């Protein structure tokens, strides 16, 4: 599975696309968070409207239904944004991160 993180430090916003499902509706959750959901009311993307107020993944999961397959992407996306914000962002005002999650494999002994 892949996800995308788009960040604009100039506007102090970021978006985490969790999956490629079509967006049916956007839900404003608080003053700094918008969650895009599909027709099954599952999160497709998360928009942060203030990089100084980055929520914990658990808080987003409490407020919106995040498919269990997308939880790892949400956590990695929030960590990416937080690291970028702390280190004052990337060389440009807009950055995009594409990542692929991998299922860990056990090394047989």
Q: What would you note in describing this structure?
A:
The chain has helices at 57-63, 71-86, and strands at residues 2-8, 13-17, 25-28, 33-37, 43-48, 94-100. It is an alpha+beta fold. The protein has one domain. A six-stranded antiparallel β-sheet has the order 3-4-5-2-1-6, with helices on one face. Strand 1 and strand 2 (13-17) form a beta hairpin. The protein is globular. Residues 89-109 have low confidence and may be disordered.
Largest β sheet strand count, sense and barrel closure: 6 strands, antiparallel
Outline: globular
Report the portion of residues in β strands.
Answer: 25-35%
Radius of gyration: 14 Å
Number of domains: 1
Distance between the termini: 28 Å
Number of distinct beta strands? 6
**How many helices?**
2
Q: Note poorly predicted spans.
A: 89-109
Residues in helix, %: 10-25%
> What pattern of helices and strands is seen along the backbone?
EEEEEHHE
| Structure classification | alpha+beta
Spatial arrangement of strands, main beta sheet: 3-4-5-2-1-6
Region (Disordered): 82-109
Organism: Corynebacterium aquilae DSM 44791
Protein name: DUF2283 domain-containing protein
Pfam families: DUF2283
């Amino acid at each position: 599975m892949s996800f995308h993180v788009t960040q604009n430090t100039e506007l102090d916003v970021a978006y985490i696309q969790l999956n490629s499902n079509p967006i049916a509706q956007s839900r404003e959750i608080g003053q700094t968070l918008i969650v895009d959901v599909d027709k099954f009311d599952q999160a497709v993307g998360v928009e942060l409207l203030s990089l100084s107020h980055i929520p914990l993944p658990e808080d987003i999961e409490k407020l919106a239904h995040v498919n269990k397959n997308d939880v790892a992407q949400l956590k990695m996306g929030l960590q990416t944004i937080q690291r970028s914000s702390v280190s004052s962002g990337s060389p440009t005002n807009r950055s995009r991160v594409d990542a692929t999650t991998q299922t860990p494999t056990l090394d047989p002994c």
